[in-house]
Specification:
Blueprint lengths: L2 H14 L4 H11 L6 H13 L2 E3 L7 H12 L12 E4 L4 H8 L6 E5 L10 H13 L4 E5 L2 H5 L3 H15 L3 E5 L2 H4 L2 H12 L7 E3 L11 H18 L4 E3 L7 H14 L17 H14 L16
Helix pairs in contact: 2-11, 3-12, 3-13, 4-5, 6-8, 10-11, 11-12
Length: 312
């Protein structure tokens, strides 16, 4: 990092404040000790189902596979008390197939990764064209990746300008800004990037940890740093920003710990899929198994439920 980069980072860190890394780790360790029982646990499990973005992001995706995904999204279980998930998430080329499968006015939303996901390494005009095409084909939500190279070079205005261009390309579609936390390297960088994004997007949009395509994805630690950034931004501006941890959340136990973090950091107003999502499709089946256990007292075998799509 050269002197100019160092100066730009120092200025941004001074604006948004540093992260107490030890304090963050102490707080998240406490979340793993919380115990939810009976009605509270069942409520948490069902709430987590409503927050899942059920995802397939494979080169071999077909309209038929997407239609099956949409059917599971609408009816995750034979148990009529289990609600639908928040959204299905697909590549832009599969948005039309998802829209055909779900139909107009469906409770399940269509999200599409865009802006040359997961690397973001494409000309801006190409990335914006992908966003516009996905929205035109019926996407309700766009998950974009930030320009990590520009951020790490200290080119914060470039990062913000590109996010602003994507906001404009989204129109009425909700935007989720993926920071790719593993490539940002430090909690201070994650907090700073969160503020750059939040200052540019709109109320009701989201910041998101990861693409799910790197070795390190969502953790209670980086989730906490972003939750606290959202809290501080809300207290400063009154603008409510959503949060989406993505990748690596595979069990119901983990999901409940993340929900405890939300409740204790942001409060009940964020315990809704309008403000919190899980980008972890392989999580869904474990949530369904745990709901069945709470309902009947017996675990079902994993194959009892249809296979979830790719973890993301």
């Amino acid at each position: 990092m050269n002197a100019g980069q160092s100066a730009s980072f120092r200025r941004l860190f001074d604006e948004v404040g540093p992260v107490d890394c030890v304090g963050v780790e102490e707080r998240v360790a406490k979340y793993t000790t919380r115990s939810l029982k009976k009605a509270a646990k069942l409520w948490g499990l069902r709430t987590a189902v409503t927050m899942v973005d059920l995802t397939t992001l494979e080169g071999k995706d077909t309209p038929g596979k997407v239609a099956s995904l949409c059917a599971k999204a609408r009816h995750p279980s034979d148990d009529p008390t289990v609600p639908p998930v928040a959204a299905v998430c697909v590549y832009p080329a599969m948005v039309r197939a998802a829209r055909r499968a779900l139909g107009p006015g469906a409770a399940v939303r269509i999200a599409s990764v865009a802006t040359a996901f997961p690397s973001g390494q494409a000309p801006l005009r190409t990335r914006l064209g992908e966003v516009r095409a996905a929205v035109a084909d019926g996407a309700d939500e766009i998950d974009m990746v930030i320009n990590r190279g520009a951020f790490l070079a200290g080119e914060f205005a470039e990062v913000a300008d590109e996010i602003a261009a994507v906001v404009a390309a989204c129109g009425d579609a909700t935007l989720k800004v993926i920071l790719e936390v593993s490539e940002l390297e430090t909690f201070d960088n994650i907090r700073a990037a969160s503020f750059i994004a939040m200052r540019t997007i709109r109320g009701g949009d989201f910041i998101k940890t990861s693409t799910g395509k790197t070795s390190l994805n969502a953790t209670l630690g980086n989730n906490q740093v972003m939750l606290e950034a959202i809290r501080d931004f809300y207290l400063e501006t009154g603008t409510a920003i959503g949060m989406k941890p993505a990748g690596g959340i595979r069990t119901a136990k983990q999901a409940l710990q993340f929900l405890v973090a939300v409740k204790e950091t942001l409060g009940d107003a964020w315990l809704t899929n309008a403000r919190y999502r899980f980008g972890a499709s392989s999580l869904l089946n474990d949530l369904l198994r745990q709901i069945e256990k709470e309902r009947t007292g017996a675990y079902q075998a994993p194959y009892y439920f249809s296979e979830a799509a790719e973890s993301y």
